[in-house]
Amino acid sequence: MDMQNKKAISVIREQQQTDPVMTMGQELSTLKISNIQKDALIQTMGEQLAMVKLELIQLKGGGN
């Protein structure tokens, strides 16, 4: 078996950590995950607010 890349794994990982494109990609991925979590939280809070509003309407007698 002929190996194409004969660098040690530690050398490859070190290069990946210092590679600005790789670092930017990791940061972009982290930001994307953070935004997804934020959007999910906002959606959940919106749903809870809607439920509270409906309960308030029912308590005031507007739902009958």
Automatic annotation (TrEMBL):
<protein>
    <submittedName>
        <fullName>Uncharacterized protein</fullName>
    </submittedName>
</protein>
